[in-house]
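Memo to structure team: turn this sequence into C-alpha cells by end of day. - J.P.
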Amino acid sequence: MYRHLFLFWKWGCYVWLMICSVLLAMGTQSIGQTIPPAQASSSTASAPAKQPYFIYGADVSFLQQMESKGIAFKDNGQVHPGLEILRHNGFNWVRLRIMNEPTPLPNTLQYSLVEAKAARALGFRILLDFHYSDDWADPAHEKTPAAWAKMPHEELVKAVYQFTKDTITAFREQGTMPDMVQIGNEITSGMLWPDGRLPDRWPQFADLLEAGIRGANDGKGAEQRPLIMIHIDQGGNDETTKWFFDNLIVNRVPFDVIGQSYYPWWQGSLNELKNNLEFMANRYKKPIIVVETAYDWRDSEDFKGRKPPYTQTPQGQADFLGMLVNTVKQTPNGLGKGVFWWEPMAEGAIAKRGMFDDHHEALPVVKVFGSAQQQ
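Reply from structure team:
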C-alpha cells in the first residue's frame, strides 16, 4: 500500500514538473525582437521613421513641472526647451509616469497628456509607466490608491482594467498613442498591496497584471498594440530575476519586454548587470531594457562608504553612462534594446543625479547618447 502511495506521489510530482516546463517554454518563445516604430500623430501624414537599433531614453516626468516654474535649461550656454535639448543630443524615447490621484506629485492624466503631446511633436516615442498608486510605487511602497483601498479583489481587478483602458484611450484620442506600456513600476514585491503583494499572492498579482494588459490592449482602438513591459528592480541579481519571471510565466502573464532598474549603489556592479543580461537573454529570449538608471555628478553618500566605480564628477557620470550603453549592447542575440535615464531634469535631493548642473547647464552626460550613435 505504502509503495503504491509513494509511486502515485512520485508520478504526480513528475506531471507537475512537466506542466511547469511546458509553461516556461511557452513563455520564453520570442515574440519578435523589434521595438515597433513610432506612431505618427493623427494630424501628421508622413510615415513613421524606421526604428533605430537602440533606445536612448529618459524619464522626463518632472520636466513640465520645472519649466512651468520658469526654469530654463541650457546647452552650450544657449537656452532651449528641455525636450529639444534631449532630442538634439540623440534621445529618441521618453518615459512618462502616470498615477491615479497624485499629491503633491504632478503626474495626473492631464499633465501626462501635455507632456506626451510635446514629446510626440518632436518625434519622440513614448513609454507610459503606470504606477497604480497615488504616490511613488517601488519594492518598498506599492500602496493601493485611496479610491480603491477598500475594494475586494474582483472589484480591484475591474478598476485596474478600466483605469488602464481609459488612460490609453485618452492618449490615443489625442494622437499620442504610447508605443510601449509598463504595467506597474518596480513590481518585484508585487503591486496594489495588500491584494497583490508578493511572494504570497501570485494568483491575485497575476490577475491584476492581466487586467492592466487587457486594458492597454482594449484602449488602443484601431491603433497598433503597444508593447507590454514588466519592470523589476533587479538589474544585477539573476537569482531574484529568475524567481520573478519564472513565476510570471507559470502564472501565464503575457508580456513582450523585460524592464530592469540599474542603479550601481543598489543593484551591483556593471559586471553583475552583464551577467544578468546574458541570463535573461538566454532564458527568456525577449527584448531587455534598462528602464531606470542614474549616476551622481557630484559627491554623495549613495555608495555608503564603498568606493564608487567612477568618480562622482560630471565626467565620471558621463563615463558611467557610456560604459552602461556598451554593456547593454553586448547582450546576447541583440536583445539588449535600450537605456532610460531616470530624470535628467530634477530638483532637490535627486538633482545630483540629473543631467544638468545647478545653473541648469547641460553636463557632459547629455552628449553620450549622441556619441554612441556615431560609433
